[in-house]
Design brief:
6 copies of one chain form a homohexamer. Chain A is built from 8 helices and 7 strands, in the order αβαββαβαβαβααβα. With 258 residues, chain A is of the alpha/beta class. The two termini of chain A are 29 Å apart.
């Protein structure tokens, strides 16, 4: 199997792969607490694992992950007041994305996919991509294309039903819950301790955000729903569904005919 | 009835209201195409109308709306490539929010609500608020509180069912659709021409974003769902539900006991 | 009469107007105290009113006003320490102008006029325009033209004499004075209460600026000269002179032969 | 006579002078064309000469001049399209001022005067000072005071009349004219060649600014009025008047009782 | 042995370690070509390996590495024009460092060491640290301490002589040379292919930098000196010396008595 | 001899010189303490003197020096905590360089040399040059070339041996030492007082930087090595060697054949 990690290629290999038209995937995550039962890196490890499998499927390359992300929000990640969560300012995040894309384009890369594993990153990725495309246009590069996706958006209804039956709480509160924990159990079981899962109902929030956060609205675990039902088998299923879905979708997304 | 618009107060009136503890609402919108049947200002006019009614209910003040917003995204607003849509860079938007909040705090205001009418603004409002609170902390102001909300999050299931029956397409594609058009028909009927509504099924998008946008994915109208069923009566209902919901929620949000 | 407000057009109307070569006027103001006798929005309402009349005269369009401006200075606006005055940092103001011009140019607009109603904005408008023209050049747009004007610069000597006789204090201290108050009395009389005008001689300042401001140098009213002699009739005259002067000037300014 | 130039002091001398409460003057200029008869540095040399004399009078210190300024504007400096004129972006200028003031405050300086010699700098100096004072406040420094002045504002009516009789064209068009040329003839005669003065009436401009500039509006010389009547004697007079005026004014400006 | 990787801790473990006063090391590297014989990640992997061993020695923690660094310079890294090298703008790099330090300080961390593996990062780390300390001061945190080091500065003369005898070319041209290759052979032998080492004399450069780079000054390999003599044994030695030197030095650096 | 100072040329002279292809040298320094025996401007005066002599040799021009530089670091300049040292933030420094280069390029200049006199500036000059070249490329200017050099890098081994015999401490600690003091004694003897030289061994530092600085590591003089052996004769020699070396090097650097 061809290597996929850019960082592990020597430059002549990379240069050849780029000349051959390789697409580049960039996992984008965060250093963020995910409850007492799990390490703080699932938002990095999960999109990295998915990116590497997708790259293997479609002949792509994986750039080093962005391991620090935008500030955790209470209704999607528990809040940025929690210990361990280590985030960038919005403008810093935007500029990191812009800079990395600008460099890849300088190498000759023309198709990049940002594989997001941290909900709060999305709009800053969007702005970073927009600025990169603007600057590339100034440099005379007009055929650079970029996809932004979040891997959970590729988990289909059938899979959700298979895992959650009727109790799917929505991705919004899946922070440190069944989805992430199952994937971690499958991929990095030594970073999960199911004995420490705190079983509680999904967090409930009002239809607005209050700043500074009211810490009492986040469950004491830091998770927004319980991971009790997570299993490595679910993780394997979720991984397969995500990888297949993304592999297929990128074929369409970057189809030159579209 | 007490005046609510800050811009229409003389400064001694404003100063007194602030000393009395008035909360300030800031409508945040965009200049964005909303289809051939409607003006480009619903994202400003609707949160403004709601803010003024909420302010009247709870004794608040309304600051001048932020009338330019963040870039329209294809899956929520049709895309920023469309004519008329006039947007700010992410960092500009962040800094506008930060600056205005910093000034309100200087006046003595301690409770502000950003009433959002343009989906894409949300995360940039969040960052602007975060930076403002950080700077205010540096200035020794530690009791400044801010709520960010989007008015459609206060439309309850009952109302949705009353209007859409079983066909609610989700807020995601409600750009230029029944919600906004009904509200505009009720509030600013001269800015809507129902004869020009293009009736088409809700736009369908893949589970990722591609940049630059593929224009063919946005319906030619620029709307993401059809406004054909919009009526002024629905608008009246939606307005009432939003205003009541927000008025109540802000009482809780800013309850000193929380 | 053709519509002039961009925000009230549907996008196909706007797109057509731009294709037809319409010039765009952007009123630029501030949220700034203007004395106990007047609302805090004259710097927005006056250039807006003028812009709309000029647009009607010459077939132009009016973009939504920039309603927050640069920090009030003591010798021209009383100072930014005063309650109600709500200002942007210089760099924020610059970037807002740059962004909006960039977007208008993307639509195809090639002639824009910034109609300023707040003295302190001028140099930041200049820089915003300079940055926009620079970036547009990078994008291959080399025919974008922009005029910056302040409406009071179009009040001629005859009009000044008709209103002030020999007592014209200079525009520098006309903050909240006869000019603005007369225009507001004509255009928005419900936002003026002449009973609350504080009659005092024009403020006198040393030939330098001291920071932080010495508050005692600003009259307690916040105005820099007395509005006592303001009348709606003067306002009507001033409006007519400004509108005529600007309408004529823009014909010359944008004459393709120059 | 005590030394005045900070750059020529050894640090223990400087530290002592700061402990003794010395005020610091910072000349602020530009590298800007000033016509075919004069070097491009009058905006630096003139405020520097004035600052040193004022410092000698009042026991102050002079920091190295800011030798690059904001972009030359057509109606005050001929325009930034002219060869030789070398300017900073607005935000760069703002940050230079902020940084230098922050450093002086760190040394213990509490009173600074920016002595401006380039009209276009003014508002960017203002913003730089505002940001510096804001940051110093965050650092717990609340007694930092700053004066911004332009030296020509200290030329009184008597002097104007003595030099220009009834032909004073206004400072606005005094770019490369009698004021600057006379001062340079007095202070740096080898940098002036009166044989190359181009005698033309003062430039006339419309009451607005057009961007990009229309080069034909600037006299071919680059000056906005004629320096033909400039003399070293006038320069001596102007220098004396400015130095005396500023020396006196700063006593008042920084009077602890105000 | 205690865990050292922050990313692999659950938040309660991390919070406890921080309360116990743990020092945090942040490896800082780059994605940069290192010749045809080696992967592009030694600047990340080497300081990471060193940081983890130092952390194990002294009870510290290791934060996720900064994997993108400042632009490669020709005389230290071959130049930023080379394929694969993927760098951040200076200001982006500064802000990433500032943001991460600010967050660690929010968690309660008070001692951080930046372990640099990419020469060009140094001054941007310095500025990032300076800005972080400034902002922390504004937040009332005055006891935050930070060390910046580059691991090769801990290779002593004895070790240099043991490895290079009399042919030490200086760290300046050790890009992709014996130092880095030996360390990689010891730590990650599968990422090195000694058969592809190009043997050439150390690059020679003039005593200045020319921009844009003259590509012919960089050896075709992209390395600045030959790795031919690299061995895993040297790598083991270098690692031990660096780890011991840094472990000892940090004891002194953070000695509360200093 | 042709004039070399841009600031002392009238614009038509400058424009002609640029049309004739003149190279421009920009001295870059700092306002930084250099011990009790010397003024705080050697980092400006020395590269200025060198630049003017080089310019005379090769027909170049000298732009006004950048007189404020990046923050003094303890191991190269004593540290930025010392009184008198007055520094810019990194991003400010970067932008000043970018702006000035952009302007020179607008005039038609295509070859610029930054002659650095303050060690800490180097990487920020590099980034400023990189940004300028990027922006110039966007403007269609692709033949702009820039050299960055530090003058001490042109002092050859022979000269070092002639001055220091076997005691050369390395440029790193030559802050306020024999090099700079000798050059100042030769060029500006009134700014040096040899009686105040503090004779101490070269400062010794650990192989890392600690922030905030530990002030006790910097000798009380602020110098990093003793200037006791400095003489005007050494200064004359050093100046001649630097000027000759740089004059020759620039011929090669800008050789169109390279």
């Amino acid at each position: 199997m061809e290597k996929t990690r850019i960082s592990e290629l020597a430059w002549p290999e990379y240069a050849q792969r780029v000349r051959d038209g390789a697409m580049v995937l960039i996992p984008v995550g965060a250093l963020e607490q995910h409850g007492p039962h799990m390490s703080m890196n699932p938002d990095v490890l999960l999109p990295t694992a998915i990116s590497e499998r997708v790259a293997a499927n479609i002949g792509g390359l994986v750039a080093p992950a962005l391991v620090y992300g935008y500030k955790s929000q209470q209704q999607s990640g528990g809040g940025n007041h929690l210990p361990g969560t280590t985030s960038l300012d919005g403008n810093t995040m935007i500029n990191v994305v812009r800079d990395v894309l600008r460099e890849l384009a300088r190498h000759g890369v023309r198709r990049v996919t940002l594989v997001n594993g941290h909900y709060e990153n999305s709009m800053f990725l969007t702005e970073g991509v927009d600025l990169a495309i603007r600057e590339l246009g100034w440099s005379g590069v007009h055929d650079f294309r970029c996809v932004i996706l979040s891997y959970w958006d590729f988990i289909d209804e059938t899979t959700i039903r298979a895992i959650y039956a009727d109790d799917f709480p929505g991705w919004a509160v899946e922070h440190g819950g069944v989805l992430e924990t199952s994937l971690m159990l499958h991929l990095h079981p030594h970073l999960v301790n199911m004995d420490l899962v705190e079983d509680h109902p999904p967090a409930e929030f009002p239809p607005y955000d209050h700043f500074p956060v009211k810490p009492e609205l986040t469950p004491a675990s830091g998770c927004l729903s319980s991971a009790r039902r997570a299993t490595a088998e679910y993780g394997e299923l979720l991984l397969r569904v995500a990888v297949e879905g993304i592999s297929t979708a990128l074929g369409t997304a970057f189809d030159p005919a579209t």
